[in-house]
Structures
1.
Amino acid sequence: MAVPDEQPADLPSDLPECPSMQGTGLLPAELRAWMLLLAATGAVEQRLRSVVKERLDVSHDEFLVLCLLAEMPREGIRMTRIADLLGRPKTRLTYQIACLQHAGLVTRRSVHDDRRGVEVALTDKARRLLREASDQLAETVTEALASVMGPEQREAACGLLPGLTGNDRSTTTP
């Protein structure tokens, strides 16, 4: 319940101080930061669901499969690898892939050297739809994170990656 004179938490500057920054609970900083990250992820997923349904006409879980495939080689990857990367049961993934294939967004084919293996790849239609929706999807993610993460929350989340600051890209620059 909101306190009567409290302003809405629509903007990061309006957010209450992050409990993770206080460090008064039982959890170590890494677990407090992890909980903050989970809350932020939940906010993003909540906002993305309707945009994904409207723009791509797929479920959020199917969208995650499309995003994973979009970052993989054009030839595709094995379904077992997708299940591992997304932490999904293989039976559930089989259903999601069937739905995506029915919508013309992915192809499935047997792996030539392993009859039991199945590779999945994006279709050109899926690539086009993702390109067309990417700006709105990215904006939705940014807005969702901005609505739940102010400076204190971002600082707490950085506790998950000690030594990583602002523009530190030491692992990716020569």
Note: The chain has one domain: 28-158.
2.
Amino acid sequence: MAKKDTSGLMSSAGIMRYFEAEESAIKIDPLFVIAGAVAFGALIWGLNVYFSMA
């Protein structure tokens, strides 16, 4: 009896699911993330300075 080789199908199914999930993901520009982190840090620093003077 011949053996059935299904390893190719199983491995490609995982890759296809990964790429399908990648297409539906939200894409955010890295510059936006860095700018948001810097703005949030500046806000926290500014609030710290403001409330330490009181």
Note: Residues 7-53 form one domain.
3.
Amino acid sequence: MEDKMDVAREQTEVFSMRLSAGKAAAFRRLASTEGRDPAEHLEYLAVEAMIAAGLLPPHEVEVHRLREGLVRRFVDAAVRIYAATPRTDITAEAARQIVAEANWLKDYERYKELREIRTINPTFGRRVKLRLNLLTGKQFAVPQPNILSYASHLLPQDDGGPHVLPAGDDS
């Protein structure tokens, strides 16, 4: 099983970039407005530039466009839901509502067909939390259960304070 996992992993390369403190702070703000962390936003901008320059094959362009469209629509749905009623299960509720949209679900299935690695789902939750400013390190700004471990209606009485996830829990 582990051999299959190693084969499926994309080979990546890391680049560093120098920015003045002021430009770095501005870039962090720019990334934040897009609901991305700075590294993720830098990658997005680089891929967009490569597409504009005609440097990527059509398959990679399609995968990128599908991924960005899926994530953006998911995050937009979460923002709409949260604006109406702030809630601790925002990612789960956004998922419940977005899969009811036939076009989103069709694009999601197409994305899964095109990709060897299907790791988009954690991106949905992370980007929702970043966009709504609900994530600060490993502590949430609002009470937040781990939706992968249990449903909120099964929780013991909540004290209303912030919930800190155990180390190593990236959900």
Note: The first strand starts at residue 135 and ends at 136.
